[in-house]
Amino acid sequence: MKTMRDIIKERQHDAEETKKQRYDFLDHLIDEMKSQSFLTYDFITYVMFALMFATMETIPATLTLAIKFMKEHPLVLQELMREHEVIMKKKEDAKCGLTWEDYKSMTFTMNVEYSEGR
Predict the structure, then answer these.
(1) Which residues neighbour 14 within 8 Å (Cβ) at sequence distance 6 or greater?
(2) How many structural domains are present in the chain?
(3) 50 and 83 co-located in one domain
(4) pLDDT per position in the chain (118 positions), as tens?
(5) Could you tell me the residue range of the domain that residue 73 belongs to?
(6) 61 in a domain, yes or no?
């Protein structure tokens, strides 16, 4: 992460000092930092880090980010667990697994999956 932060700061310095821009995605994010308050060094670092892994190992990277975001947002994890427990309590045999109808009824879970997939 430190290396990624150093690259971002170096690119920002290059853009400010030499007016030299490659105007790739990273330069676009750095440029947008001036007008968008949510774009911070940490946010850009996480985005670039995630994009690096997403291009190499999509599923493991997505799962890693999902776990990271759930750790950072415990209410999301709590609601996911609540939703799953409600469905499992309705089942006569908890060992039989989920049906397609069960899965479709998990609206919060689907919203989290869609958000993670973006």
Answers:
(1) 20, 21
(2) 2
(3) no
(4) 788 888 888 888 887 777 766 678 888 888 888 888 878 888 888 888 888 766 666 677 777 888 888 888 889 889 999 998 898 888 877 677 778 888 888 899 888 877 776 6
(5) 66-117
(6) no
What tokens appear for 1 in the block? 């992460």
Residue 40 sits in the same domain as residue 75? no
What amino acid occupies position 28? Answer: H
Q: Give the amino acid at 36.
A: Q
